[in-house]
Amino acid sequence: MDFSFTEEQQILRESIIKLMQRHAPPELVRKHEAAQTFPYELYDEWVKAGLLALPFPEEYGGLNGSAIDLAIASFEISKVSADLGMAYGGNIFCGLNLVRKGTPEQLQTWLPKMIEGEVRFAISISEPDAGSDVGNIKTFARKDGDRYIVNGQKLWNTGVGLKNTLLNTYVKTDRDAHYRKGLSLLLIENDAPGVDYRKLDMLGRRSVGTYEVFFKDVEVPADRLIGGENRGWDCMMGGLQIERAVSAAGSCGAAQAIVDLAASYAKERVQFGQPIGSFQAISHMIADMATEVDAATMLMWRAVWLVASGKDALKEITMAKLFASEVYVKVANMGVQIMGAYGLVGEYDMQRFFRDSRSATIAAGTSQTQRNLIAGLMGLKAAR
User: 345 and 252 in one domain?
Assistant: First the structure.
């Protein structure tokens, strides 16, 4: 099992690092985070560099990249900002779902536009009473001729308010059926008549934003239905592995950035006449942080390698997502402790990483959900 990058992947990695250094310097990321605005100019640079095209078929303008290529991009973008990593990964996750379940006409219509930056995708699943319990979705779409009429509410949706965004919206289309047989996936413009949303005041990830969304008699053309009516569960489940792989890569990238920040600070900060990194209490903390982040990263690369090799990797991806997100939260907490009060000051990036980290064990499936899935795959699922 060889986890080394190919020459092309190493070039990809180095190019992303340079792009982020040039177009997302710390002061720019801090500015947008404080103002809760999105750096559209950075997104345009992703498009120019082909990062949105990475995993998609060439016939639609893609580059036929692998899961490893995608993880490299997510890792390096998230080293700068996990929030920006979410903006990148959310688009990719929805686009790959379209590849799996869309019709040729839908692919030809939407994929090139997404790859060229003309439209963005945002996932819209969670509701006030349907977080981990996605089977409890209540937003309803009624078929009316050649359109659907959508009514309901969504919550905790990332990036909904960004310009030219299509909401990949999971709705009930058969209230009487089992939830695995009564969900559908619709593409809905965020500025369609009857769509209303508001940005929530969250602890972290404030640039891309987390939103509450309301649908009131929203008319959606029937050709925006992805995967067939009442087949939404298949769409949702088919995309979770790559979503969680990208999420794990993002957590690992952000966690590595925290280790780098803490180590750099410990070498420069002098107390009692010497750098604090020379004190065993601090150096051992950083050593533990580096070791755990490396272990999480190895778990992530193993899972991504399995996916790229065409193997079933549900357990490995779930383990990687679980461990990477929890390590991310842990090292962010330790990073603040090492920096002391400086770690809580807005002009330093540690506090931003600390705030952004806290959603990692919740988004893309909570840690508890991941543990349930792992246990079930080990034959330990409780009978119902």
Answer: yes
